[in-house]
Design goal:
The chain is mainly α and 754 residues long. The protein is built from 26 helices and no strands. It is flat and about 145 Å long.
Length: 754
Amino acid sequence: MDFSSFADENFDAIAWINNAIKSSKVDGIESMVSSMIMKLQLLSQEVSSSFEETSSQALVRMPRALMEIERMAKEAKNLRHNLNTLLQGDQSEAHSQTQTSVERMNQLHQVRLKLDVCTETIAKVAYLQSNMMRMSMVFEDGDTSTIGSEIKHMQDALQKLTDYPEQHSKFSSTIAGYESQLVHLVEKDCLDALVQHEVSKAQEYLATLSKIGKMEAVVRQFIQRSITKVLDVWQSYETETDFAAWLPLFFNEIKTFVAKEKAYYIEVFGTVQYPSKVASLILCIMDSLDPSFASRIAGMPLPDLVKAYSATSVLYSFCCKELAGQADASGPAIAGLTDEMKTVIYEPYLPQQKQFDQLEKKYLSDSIRKFPWVDRAGDQTQSLTPALVQAIAESSSQMYVLAEEALNRCLEFTDGVESQGLLTVLNEVLVEYAELVGRLVKSVGDDSGLTPKSPLGAALKSPLAPGSPISEANGSPLKAKSLPPRRDASTVKVGLHLHQICAMMLSKLDKFETVAKSIILSKRQVMLNGSSPLLLANPMKLMSLSHFLDSLDSLKIPIFSLATKHFQLLSKDVEALVFDALFEQIRSWLNGIPKMPVWTGTSSEPAEHPLEYIRSIGDYLFDLPMLILSQAPGATAGAPAEEGDDGAQSRYWVDIVVRGCVDLLLQCIEQIPRLSASGGEQLACDVDYFKDVLTMLTEHPYPVLEDLQKLLHCDVTDLATQLGTVQCAEKMPLYKAIRAKRSPSNLQPAGSAK
């Protein structure tokens, strides 16, 4: 019977029993089962006995095994300690011996190096002495190439004697003399060959001079000889000629000359060396122009200066292109040459670039002063005529043309580096323009004895101020009288036109601000690359420029807030001017109303009709929209200006005049000394009529008039109750005054009325 499967982890007892029965050869299932049970019992007893015996032996041997393990651990630790001690001792001794040997070897190496230097120095000295003895023979042979090679070798040998000043000084003066002799022999022939374009001879002489480091000096002489024709053109300039227009023609001469010389330089110097020689040619030309170039551009009008700068930029681009023709344009050598050229070519403009904001402000201010109407801004004897206002309208359009040109000049002349200063200048110039227009507006107001104030939110002038005249001795209302010279319809006409100009200026200013900010930020990368001559001259400016651009991009602060504020103030002054002209007749009708006898007298007839003063005001208000349209910009004789679909323009001014009329009427009512029964009835009739007029004219409710109607129509005994139902609590002093005026204790007999 197979018991091996009992040790399996997934032993299945039922499956094992079935398999054992199937594989058994014993007949009868009962005998088979009995035999299996007996075998299993015997196996169980055997396993139990073996487990008990093994456990007993393990328990007996465990203490001894632990003692052996502990002993072996101690021996291993002792062995490890002994090995470490032994290794440390050997290493220290070996290190000490090695260090001593290395120091000795280093000393020997230093001695050897010194001996080598001494040997080499002695050899160089001997070489120089022997060469000097035979240099006279070399010069006698006349082979300049050999002479150059010998001098080159002597120069190299001399370099080894730099640590020996006495020997170096002794030989250097002699070698310098040989160099001078060779230059004297070759220089004239080399220059003649270069001038006459004898390429092979020139290259031979240049190679000889190059060996001793004297080629650049001769090439510089050649360049100075070759540019005389260009300098003759420069000297031929006549001061009467427009320099900004003449300069591009002169630069064309330079470009033609440089292009021609470039081809020759490539042939003589080769594609590797020609860029530096072309750069030297250009720099020599520009150096020869200074300082006369700087003196010619000094004091030029800013637009002409920018034109000259633009022509100079074209020349610089051409020069960069010529340098990079057959050479590596991205190489450090070319980059160094172009940077050097930029510094020299743009240097004459640097003082003006640093003062760009001042120059721009002067130019813009002078441009404003040339507007034909400006000289009349301070002359109060001049009237504000339609022709003058039309001139202002035309100049307002020119202002933004000037601003756009100024922005373009800043981007072109300073690469946008001075954009922060430009925005400040534009703010100041626009403020200056607004103030000049404001002087004209105020001169009209001052001439009539009234300084214009905004009718919106401002206290209106009362006709009952101390000293106000009464037209009629009996205190009857004034008849409508003609407007003063500066308060006639022409004042309304020019005022409405000016108001339109102010709105247009504010709209254009808002659009220009958006465009200016967008253009400046679009040039951000160009500004911050540090290549601008202004930044090269002042590296610290780069930090402030970066901060300004970050603020311009992130902060939503209007860049023309100062100019916007002044145009808004100008608009309010114009509003006040138009308001005063429109309100003049209403003020005259209301003048003297508080002292009319009708308020204190008695009458047996009921008040069925409003008085003449309030009817005149009503008729005037009904005619006001057509009056405004007839004087608005675009109106012609007999034909009013076209009103928009919403009637916004006329409604705007009607609302302002109505508001002023209501306020002034309330002042007049408050100044009435007392109200008789018939006087109160008449005042109520007048207020009812005025309220009906306003209802037809405007969409705005006037609750203060409704309160007045209640207080004037109610019974005297009901006044206290009506005061508790008013809508405009802020007018309570007026309401209480009306109650006091209607109070029986305040009434006098009819015969005592004056």
